[in-house]
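for the recovery benchmark. tokens below, seq after
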């Protein structure tokens, strides 16, 4: 993006849908609900071990995930760690990446960006930050995204509690460190 100044920033995105799909799968398995009933799942930040799968705003069958799953220790611990480390776990178990899951997530991302988002829902996509939620402008960062099928927008006003803010800040800091390392190499 930084080396293709002629392409508008809103045309660049990075996938975090694979992580969103993994988070929905974990919530579905824990709650006994079908994965299609999981909505409002946001992956904040980077596709890395610092990403934050936001269970506080996720819904299961229209109810807050924290009401359906009362095990908040699991949500704040094992759930987050499982989503963050799922790719590494697959590689360790299979000796291969999860290429088919990633390909499916790529299709899901394109589908989500080219069709209107269901009322009241959103999806996760890393886009060039416009400063929303206090994230440094210009960072590629995953936010809750809504689209009308032609243009996307960052969903504004999603509640972010102290726990979530700390997780979001950690993933933002990692992205800044990565950007600064690339800058030191003279690549941007």
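predicted aa per position
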């Amino acid at each position: 993006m930084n080396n293709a100044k002629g392409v508008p920033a809103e045309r660049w995105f990075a996938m975090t849908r694979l992580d969103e799909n993994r988070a929905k799968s974990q919530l579905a398995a824990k709650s006994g609900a079908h994965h299609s009933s999981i909505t409002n799942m946001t992956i904040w930040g980077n596709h890395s071990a610092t990403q934050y799968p936001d269970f506080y705003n996720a819904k299961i069958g229209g109810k807050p995930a924290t009401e359906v799953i009362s095990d908040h220790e699991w949500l704040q611990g094992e759930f987050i760690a499982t989503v963050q480390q799922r790719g590494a776990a697959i590689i360790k178990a299979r000796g291969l990446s999860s290429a088919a899951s990633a390909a499916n997530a790529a299709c899901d991302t394109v589908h989500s960006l080219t069709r209107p988002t269901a009322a009241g829902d959103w999806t996760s996509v890393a886009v060039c930050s416009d400063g929303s939620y206090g994230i440094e402008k210009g960072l590629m960062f995953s936010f809750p995204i809504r689209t009308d099928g032609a243009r996307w927008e960052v969903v504004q006003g999603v509640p972010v509690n102290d726990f979530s803010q700390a997780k979001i800040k950690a993933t933002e800091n990692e992205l800044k460190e990565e950007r600064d390392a690339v800058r030191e190499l003279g690549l941007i």
